[in-house]
Amino acid sequence: MKDLIIVASLAHLLLHVVAQTSNVTTCIPLYQWSLNSRLQTPCLVGAFLESVCEGPVEVNTLPEGNHYIGPSSSDATLCRCSTVTYSLISACAGCQNRTFRPWTEWAAACTQVEVGQFLQTIPAQVVVPSWAYLDVTKTDNIFNPILANQSLSQPPSSTSASTLAASSGTPLSSTPLTLPSTSTATHKNPNAGAIAGGVVGGLVFLVLVVLATLLFLRHRRRSSEEAGFTTRSSISTSPTQMQEGGRRSAQTITPFPYKEPFAKERSEGATLPGSPVMSAVHTTYDSPSVAPPALEVLHRYTGSAEV
């Protein structure tokens, strides 16, 4: 009787193990990274995780133009309402060159969800890859295969970790991976501040240089104008040397001395000292002798300049 019980138990266990299957045995080249350390496809690993809560599950190939759907209200277990299971099934669709739906659509019927963690006991037959624990709520609520591929440096989850969480009754919170965009933004902030400070400092320096140049040119121009004014003042004719109309003052004119025999000399055709020699033929257009104006000036001025 005891032997029958043991055989029945082994048969049930064997049936339970065999039932978690998938006929997807490989992935397209773009999704080769999704195979775990045992070269198991995400389809097979996802089938094992779903079966923990609801019994035997098969995740088989998708016909072209189809996609996997999330749980209904009748089978919305925590195993299926986990982002870990969602990521595995999404990668399973990618392995077949098929599309997958957003997490919000997958978990629409779930009343409770597990984000970035799978708190149930993970079957020993499979290894859950580290990329399945990524928090899809940080990537627009959809599985991101690029980030999943980049996270392969993270260690895979172990069965003992989930077993420890289940036995202690304390939820095991997975630490979300730091996304590349977040770290990039953190490193860029100090550089941006330094660049902004450098630009502001450069502008201030440029303004100071321009102001200094303008002040220098203005001072130089003013000095040139003052020097020019001094030069012009020094070489300008004083009022005692020039009068209105450009006429010379009486001081620059030396009148000829008056001579008594002037009438006789003039009548005899003699020329006055300094007077131009007149031609022998006189006309009404000939220039008059310089002597009469000299005499007129002599009578007009009394030896001092008219002010």
From TrEMBL:
Region span, Disordered:
151-185, 226-257
Range of residues in the leader sequence: 1-19
Q: Which organism is it from?
A: Mycena belliarum
Q: Compositional bias (Polar residues) spans?
A: 230-254
List membrane-spanning regions. 192-217
Please give the name of this protein. Answer: Transmembrane protein
Work out whether the entry's keyword set contains Manganese.
Answer: no
Respond yes or no to whether keyword Transmembrane helix is given for this record: yes
Sorted alphabetically, which keywords does the UniProt record give? Membrane, Signal, Transmembrane, Transmembrane helix
Highest taxon, organism lineage: Eukaryota
Q: What is the lineage of its organism?
A: Eukaryota, Fungi, Dikarya, Basidiomycota, Agaricomycotina
